[in-house]
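User:
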Amino acid sequence: MTNGHPDSEYFGWWFPQDDYGALYCTPNNNKMAEGDRCVYLYQDMKAGIIGTWRDGSMVTGKPAILQKFVVDGGLLKPVMEIVENKDEYTFFQSTSTSMTPDVMLPDIYEELHLYIAPSTIPSAGEGVFASTSFRNGDLIAAYNGIIISRENGFPSNELKSSHYIVETWDNLIIDIPQKYQSKDKYVASLGHKVNDSKNNNSVYKFCQHPRFGEITCVVAIRDIQGSSLLGPNKNDVIQYK
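Assistant: Predicted structure:
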């Protein structure tokens, strides 16, 4: 593959990931995605990642933009253009003590659709705004952070008082450590910057992210116009697998 253009002899499958993306890659003997020329395409059919997958999971990848599809053997193949001057993504599934080391490497999908600005909600600090329109059901942002089991209790007083905690699947919670709450310290994902709102236009849902693995994502529950402040209601029941 040259700058995202598939070679004529390269033949892959489409692997549905969840409602928010799909993966084009060769299968291994276990019918899992595996190869060095795989393409993950986000739900917007524009943002993507080109890279290496092993046994169904990304190892490394470069941010890319879809240019077109070509038809080969009756199958659509994506033709991508790698975004220049961008560092490589590395897969990292968060634990209770650590999260992605690439804290200042933005997500290509969020870069195309979101921006951070002072919130229009009094005393809310920063908020996430839509730079493009979203439809009901669209992915808005990833909510990555440390993942902690409630069964083990809260390991610190900082976590007990955190305003960023989100309930997740299997009695787990996701939180952004205090040192990463500012956009000057962490921009790898922006889901933690959405404002809690009773008049919410989005919800938290389980998602399978190519870069972060199993996390929470923020998803639109109605059509949203550009420049709108984005926010779910943290008191709502979280929708997961």
